Amino acid sequence: MATDARGDASGGSIDEPVSIESEAHLEDVTSKHDVVLVDFYADWCGPCQMLEPVLDGLAAETEAVIAKVDVDEHQQLAGSYGVRGVPTLVLYADGNQAEQHTGALPADRLRDLIEGYTE
């Protein structure tokens, strides 16, 4: 249940994950919003599927924007970010990449990660 972030230029929160459609779209989202957590995922990935409801919840309850990149649809984009395994989570703060983690992280750890950049 992803949404398109193009209509929200306020820099505020978006309550559900945003599907990224291109490198330009990802750059647009990360530059317009203070904190963005990018999930590089694949539909066939079990840990990615387990992480999806966690990310949906974080999108609704935190100030961060959750962006999703399907690595099968956007192989070149994933490659340019050094994605070697899925899920890979990349956190942007103020338009700059701040952290990158490979593998599913528990909800509380992700929440702490996000809150460390939103306070």
From TrEMBL:
Residues 1-119 form the Thioredoxin domain. GO terms for cellular component: cytoplasm. The keyword Transferase does not apply. The active site is at C45, C48. Pfam families: Thioredoxin. The record marks G46, P47 as: Contributes to redox potential value. GO terms for molecular function: protein-disulfide reductase activity. PROSITE patterns: THIOREDOXIN_1 (PS00194), THIOREDOXIN_2 (PS51352). Keywords: Disulfide bond, Electron transport, Redox-active center, Transport. The keyword Ribosomal protein does not apply. Disulfide bonds join C45-C48. The record marks D39 as: Deprotonates C-terminal active site Cys. PANTHER family: GEO12009P1. This is Thioredoxin. It comes from Natronorubrum halalkaliphilum. The gene is trxA.
